[in-house]
Amino acid sequence: MYDTVNLVRNINFDKQDVEERARKIGLNLSDKHWDAINFVKKFYDYHEDEELKVTDYSSALQGKYVRLGGLKYLYTLFPEGPIYTVTQLAGISVTNTRNNSMGSVQ
Questions:
Q1: Which of 6, 44, 52, 83 is the most buried (most CB within 10 A)?
Q2: pLDDT tens, position by position, 2-18
Q3: DSSP designation for 9
Q4: pLDDT tens across 19-41, in order?
Q5: 9 domain-assigned
Q6: Is residue 70 part of a domain?
């Protein structure tokens, strides 16, 4: 599992762009949504020289939210699939983020 406590890089991305993307898919962003989006963006920035896979995001999110139920919890926030939705909202391009085993179908 990834060390989700020590992600220390600061991130800058346009929150208005994220909110616009969310509106387009019918999502009203709460603080819980923003927490997941910011976490994924920090995770991405922390691993900027690495090619991240869906399983990397899955493991990181599972570790971050294990106390709340892990990915099951994130499905309550992002019903179309947490990994696909969060990476898209954060503006991160990831191939094959939609996968039946992770609840996101492409």
A1: 83
A2: 554 444 444 456 889 99
A3: -
A4: 999 999 999 999 999 999 999 99
A5: no
A6: yes
| Distance (Å) of CA 9 to CA 16, 32, 34, 47, 102 | 21, 20, 17, 10, 27
Within-domain flag for 59: yes
Contact call for residues 11 and 34 (beta carbons, < 8 A): no
CA distance 55 to 52: 8
Q: In Å, what is the CA distance from 4 to each residue of 11, 69, 86? A: 16, 16, 16
Instruction: Give residue 73's domain range.
Output: 15-95
pTM of the model: 0.76
How many structural domains compose the chain? 1
The stretch 44-66 carries a mean pLDDT of 89
